[in-house]
Amino acid sequence: MTDFSIFNKTTSQSFKQQKGFIKRVLNGKNLNCPECGKDLELILPAKKDAVKNPGIYCKKGCTDIELDMDAVQV
Ligand SMILES: [Zn+2]
What we know:
By secondary structure, the protein is an alpha+beta fold. It has one domain (5-66). The chain is built from 2 helices and 3 strands. A 3-stranded antiparallel sheet has the order 1-2-3, with helices on one face. β2 (55-58) and β3 form a beta hairpin. The protein is globular and about 40 Å long. It starts with a helix and ends with a helix. Zinc ion binds next to loops.
C-alpha cells in the first residue's frame, strides 16, 4: 500500500496548492492563467445564466478548475 499513500500525499499537496490559487483568484489577486498568462474566466455560482459549472477557466483550456464552494470557504 506504499504507492497508495504516496499518491494520497501528492493529491492533498496539489489540492492545497489549488486551493491557494482559487483563493487568490476569488480575491481578485490573480486573474491570469498560470500556464499561458491569459485572462481567466471566473464563474461564480450566483451566475444563473452560466453555461459551465462554477469554476475558474482559461480560454485556452490549460486551467480548468470546477469550484466546490465548500472547499473554498476558509
Ligand atoms: Zn491558459
